[in-house]
Amino acid sequence: MKRNTLAIIFACCTLALLAQDAIRVKYQGAKPTISDLAWAFLNAIDNEEEECGDKPSNAILNAWTQQREGLPLMEGETLTIDEKNGYVLYEFHYDSHILKMEMCYWNEADGKHKLFAFNNMASINLDDGKPILTETSGLNFWRYDNATKKMTYCDPPGFEVEYFDTAYALPCSGKNITVVKWNEDGTKTEKTLKWDGHKFSY
Fold first, then answer.
1. In whole angstroms, what is the distance from residue 81 CA to residue 86 CA?
2. Which of 202, 27, 46 is nearest to 118 (CA)?
3. How confident is residue 27, by pLDDT bands cut at 50, 70 and 90?
4. Contact 125/132 with Cβ under 8 angstroms?
């Protein structure tokens, strides 16, 4: 029952975020970088998360602002922005847990779009690496259009996201997503979602 309740809460929060208009991405140069995409996305959802009672994007935004201004981050907090590989990772260690959120993008085969992903793993138990489901956990995708310079929400291309006993890891290099599933017998299974320029498949 608790899992079902959390799933409903998560779904309601997600739908609230998706109801907004397309996210405009501002950038300089020939094309947007991961910083441009991530910054636009975080500021957009930051305005929409008020109703959910939890604003995980605030943690990244605050850390990003601190880092931009050359100020130290909070103890236990790290922020990695890898422009070359198109990847952003935020982590906050506390007690025996870690809050982890990551973002990245893929160039689509048509040369006209980019696929942007935001993976909020919320809280992870460091003892077994298993994520703890919260109302804001989840992996979501947005599609960026080069012509309009906007991102719009899209379904996961080629697969369905699982929310229970499953963890996703976006690629800090390369193109594939790693999926770890915890089984009822205590074991775990690891699979790879491979990107082909259009969608992901196992």
1. 8
2. 46
3. very high
4. yes
Query: Mean pLDDT throughout 177-198?
Result: 94
What is the amino acid identity at position 189? T
**Residue 3 contacts by C-beta under 8 Å, 6 or more apart in sequence?**
133, 164
Question: In this structure, is the dihedral angle defined by the CA atoms of residues 16, 21, 27 and 30, taken in order, positive or negative?
Answer: positive
Residue 197: CA count within 13 A, CB half-sphere: 4
- 198: Cβ–Cβ under 8 A, 6 or more apart, which residues? 108, 109, 157, 158
Q: What does pTM read for this prediction?
A: 0.86
Query: pLDDT, tens digit, for every residue of 110-168?
Result: 999 999 999 998 677 767 777 777 777 889 999 999 999 999 999 999 999 998 888 89
- CA–CA separation, 89 and 42 (whole Å): 13
What are residue 103's DSSP bridge partners?
88, 118
- CA 3 distance to own-chain centroid: 21
Tokens 């929060």: give the residue. 13
Token output for 155:
């379904």
Mean pLDDT of the chain: 85
Radius of gyration of the chain (CA): 17
Rounded Cα distance, 23 and 150, in Å: 5
